[in-house]
Design goal:
single chain, alpha+beta, five-stranded mixed beta sheet
Length: 539
């Protein structure tokens, strides 16, 4: 009696414990024949290793000649392959090391885990210690990539004792340290993508503002049918989705760009500025805007004319603020790229100067190489001057005409054979003119330590602060006077006139603040948010 059907792994050692009634003899019969079991009383035991499916029969007999048969079955469960899943991460702030976290599983345990390095078709295998008796385990491993292309993967073996250990390979990790030039090319592409997405996002906002304005006008006329309202709201939500997608993509792309800039290690000031711009772009879609967009989605489900009017009014104001923030972010991002390129151009000048002083070629060869290199440099610099003029708030780059003329004069002097100066002296003079130009260039960018540009901005901030304090005090005084009068008061019209004058005065303060926002990433976010609240309050 009892259950005889079972599922077991191949190679299992099966022990039968059988209890019977009125049985003097017990036989177990299968494909290989029958076997008389040994028992005591009505209790019987049997043991056998099972490698394949087994159909068997128990035959009970007694001394009275009575016989009963029982059919049973044991099925072999296939031993599955082990599994291995890995994830990798890199901490770019500390090193180029790649950290791998893995998980291995098998239904009956493991025999070994290996890390395999494949380099130029040759594999190097190293075993990683694991707990062989477990069926689930996490492991950690650190990889150190180099400049050559290498594949890494992990191989886990199970402990199949019948068919032999089976193994499974993880996905392959293709690792190689990226050269500085390659990383610069990657970031140039990311920068182009950010510029494009910000511009496209602003175009989508323009379209959305236009559609909202049309929607408000249609509501005032009041000739929209319910289904037409739903279609227009859907259209607005589609434009809203485009704007959000652009902003999310910009944030994601800019995060990768900033991480790469850290690895390139230009200088601390540039790295900090890149981080400030990243934080600014990540915060373009603030909580207030997110809530408005959420309400806009809900309006598509249940339309209410009054709510729609209030919501579209708020959306117009917030979209205008968002577009301004995007314009500032785009301009700051372009200026960051220009500043980085100009600093690299200054470094090129210093390198040219060093090479010139070490140059041991003929005088005419030195002069020719020097002129060619400087001509290429000037072409790149002229491009930056043109790009600066195209900005909404140009950086005000100097053309450094005098310093560039000095370099060209030194190059011409180096090319002359009849000069009284020795070639080494001419090269030294030319090198000095290059270094003077580089120094002037860095000074222009505020990179020499004096921070002239920063002092100018701080003075401008002080003036704006004083104007804001004066404006705030006058507005508070005006509010107190308004609280004490009603519209029929003869002086009310004078108060209205004062309020209008204050608003006009604030336009100048606002323009100065926005101008600062186009220059300083750390100010842009504060300017956008606080300025928006002041303007909406005044409305």
């Amino acid at each position: 009696e009892g259950e005889g059907n079972a599922e077991v792994p191949a190679g299992s050692n099966i022990i039968w414990t059988i209890r019977t009634v009125n049985t003097d003899q017990l036989l177990l019969a299968d494909d290989s024949g029958s076997k008389k079991l040994v028992g005591k009383g009505n209790s019987w035991n049997y043991q056998k290793t099972i490698s394949n499916n087994l159909d068997y029969e128990l035959i009970c007999k007694n001394n009275n000649g009575l016989l009963t048969n029982y059919d049973y079955k044991i099925s072999i469960v296939k031993d599955l392959y082990p599994t291995v899943d890995i994830s990798d991460s890199r901490d770019s702030t500390t090193s180029d090391d790649v950290y791998v976290q893995g998980v291995i599983q098998d239904d009956y345990g493991f025999s070994k885990l290996e890390i395999i390095e494949s380099r130029d078709g040759r594999e190097t295998i190293k075993e990683i210690p694991i707990k062989a008796k477990g069926i689930y385990e996490q492991f950690y491993y650190t990889l150190v990539p180099d400049s050559t292309s290498v594949f890494y993967f992990f191989r886990i073996y199970d402990n199949d004792r019948i068919g032999g250990p089976k193994y499974t390979d993880s996905r392959k990790l293709s690792l190689r340290t990226v050269t500085k030039k390659e990383l610069e090319n990657i970031n140039n592409q990311l920068a182009d993508s950010i510029n494009s997405k910000l511009s496209s996002g602003m175009n989508a906002i323009d379209q959305m503002e236009k559609k909202i304005s049309e929607f408000k006008m249609d509501q005032l006329v009041g000739d929209l049918k319910p289904w037409e309202i739903q279609e227009k709201v859907k259209e607005l939500n589609l434009l809203k989705k485009q704007v959000v997608d652009f902003l999310n993509n910009v944030s994601k792309t800019n995060k990768e760009f900033t991480e790469n800039e850290k690895l390139l290690k230009y200088n601390e000031e540039l790295t900090e500025k890149a981080k400030q711009i990243k934080d600014l772009m990540e915060g373009l879609l603030d909580d207030e805007m997110k809530e408005l967009l959420k309400q806009f989605e809900e309006m598509a489900k249940e339309f209410n004319a009054q709510k729609a009017e209030d919501l579209t009014e708020k959306m117009e104001l917030n979209l205008e603020k968002l577009k301004e923030q995007m314009e500032m972010s785009l301009e700051l991002f372009k200026k960051y790229g220009m500043e980085k390129d100009l600093l690299q151009q200054a470094d090129k000048l210093n390198n040219m100067a060093d090479s010139l002083q070490k140059d041991q070629t003929k005088q005419e060869d030195s002069a020719g190489n020097f002129k060619d290199e400087f001509k290429k440099w000037e072409q790149e610099f002229e491009k930056k001057l043109a790009e600066d003029k195209e900005l909404k708030k140009p950086m005000g780059l100097e053309d450094m005409k005098k310093e560039r003329d000095d370099v060209r004069d030194a190059a011409d002097d180096l090319a002359k054979k009849d000069s009284g100066s020795k070639p080494a002296e001419k090269r030294s003079k030319a090198a000095k003119s290059l270094k003077d130009l580089a120094k002037k260039m860095k000074s222009m960018l505020g990179q020499t330590g004096g921070g002239d540009g920063q002092n100018v901005d701080l003075e401008e901030l002080r003036q704006i602060r004083n104007s804001l304090n004066d404006f705030s005090q006058k507005q508070e005084d005006l509010n107190k006077r308004i609280d004490k009068m009603n519209v029929i008061n003869p002086t009310f019209s004078a108060v209205v006139k004062e309020q209008k004058e204050l608003e006009e005065k604030f336009i100048g303060i606002r323009d100065s603040l926005k101008s600062m926002g186009f220059k300083q990433p750390v100010i842009t976010k504060i300017v956008g948010t606080e300025l928006f609240h002041v303007e909406t309050s005044m409305r």
